[in-house]
Amino acid sequence: MDEEEELDEESPTPVGVKLGSTRTVLVQPQGNVVRTHETLTCLATYQDVLTGKRRAVYGEEAANEYPERVQFMLRSGLPEDDERAETAATFFNKFARANNVPEDSVVVYAIPTIDNERGLSNLAEVIEQSGIGSQLIRSYPESLCGSVPALGGGLNAIERIFIAINMGSTNLEACAYRRGEQLSGFSTGSVTGNEVDRWIANNVEEETQGRVNIDQTTAREYKEEHGDFNNFQPFTDIIQQPGGGTHEFTIERSVVDALDRYVDEAVNEIANEFLPQLANRYIKIYKQTLEEPIVLTGGMACIPGLVQEFEDRLSKELQHEVEVTAPEEPVTAAARGAQRIAQRFVEDDVY
Questions:
Q1: What is the C-alpha separation between 55 and 52, in angstroms, rounded?
Q2: pLDDT digits over 99-109, tens only?
Q3: For 162, phi and psi rounded to 5 degrees?
Q4: Nearest-angstrom CA–CA distance, 78 and 76
Q5: Strand order across the beta sheet in which 2-4 lies
Q6: What secondary structure letter does DSSP report for 274?
């Protein structure tokens, strides 16, 4: 993905980063364009048969070649212990080097809006010890970074008052922003993209009357490839049978039922938990934000038709018409927004 930009080659490189539980995205200028690089947030190690040394591969290569021992070290959203932090550091160092991120750079990275001091500290250490960002390293909330590409050019989002909802793999997060300031944050781990994957796997077993069991990776692939509120089409798949042979089956309801449940539960959390909390603390801001576009970010916002479905159901639940929007390519939006913030730091010599 390329975006035309005017870049000063003598200035530090402005870099945006999102280390996600499923995917990691890195955005930086290369030549006269801004490029977006993304990969799966995973690592696998193996023994070199010639030297006997342990080596590591990451991303899609690790997931495809070593499915039995690949590590998704940020499954909970953050590196919560030393082992996961070390694995995350190895992964990110390899990813940054592979994409030639310079040491002379200003790095802004997106962070989840959750109360996990150790995990956030470990994530900061992963970035700070990666050898990039020698000029400046800053973090901003993922939902704010993801809203930047959704609300016009430049950093228009930083000047506005609005609600952002991040529909991630490990958390559903919501926050009201007033010119970049977080006013009221909310996070739950009960309504997540990973939970949808579990629902799909369970639904497939039920729909096939117990003949088919799929893992969560396959369920996620079903969700990403076939999930669609606008025009879902039943699809077929084939599995190997124990003892030989194959079994072909058709999926009609498993994916759509899980997605339907997700939207219902997400609407319930926002309408009956987050918004009352916001209204109790900042009633004027609450009223104002409901008249502004609500921004959806995160991987679940990529499902075709989900944004409109969420808007319709939230409006019905609130008995008040609201507008919901999302950036193009929500999966990469947080890193792209972070890169715009880094670019502003470079332009204003704030480093």
A1: 9
A2: 999 999 999 99
A3: -165, 170
A4: 6
A5: 2-4, 33-40, 23-30, 13-19, 105-111, 136-141
A6: I
Q: Please answer whether residues 276 and 174 qualify as being in contact, where contact means their C-beta atoms are separated by less than 8 angstroms.
A: no
CA torsion 3→166→69→27, rounded to 10°? 20
Q: Which of 165, 86, 62, 79 is nearest to 116 (CA)?
A: 79
Of 90, 66, 87, 67, nearest to 78 by C-alpha is 87
CA distances from 276 to 81, 184, 269 (A): 34, 11, 10
- Look-up: residue for tokens 């700070």? 128
Residues ≥6 apart with Cβ < 8 Å to 112: 77, 78, 141, 142, 166, 168, 170, 171, 173, 187
Contacts of 308 (CB under 8 A, 6+ apart): 229, 324
Tokens at residue 276, please? 């009352």
- Return the H-helix or E-strand segment holding 57: strand 54-58
Sequence spans of domains, the chain? 14-146+331-348
The arithmetic mean of pLDDT across residues 231-248, rounded, is: 87
Q: At what angle do helices 254-269 and 216-226 cross, to 10 degrees?
A: 90
Beta carbons within 8 Å of 311's beta carbon, 6+ residues apart: 294, 322, 323, 324
Output 176-179 pairs: Cβ under 8 A, ≥24 positions apart: 176/278, 176/282, 176/285, 176/286, 176/289, 177/144, 177/147, 178/285
Residues 145, 16 contacting (CB under 8 angstroms)? yes
4 has which bridge partners?
A: 33
Adjacent-strand bridge partners of 24: 19, 39
Residue 105 burial (C-beta neighbours within 10 Å; 0-12, 13-18, 19+): buried
Residues 213-222 have pLDDT tens digits of: 998 889 999 9
The highest-level CATH class for domain 14-146+331-348 is: alpha beta
CB 64 within 8 A of CB 114: no
Q: At 338, is the secondary structure helix, strand, or coil? A: helix
Chain centroid offset of residue 166 CA:
8
pTM for this model (two decimals): 0.88
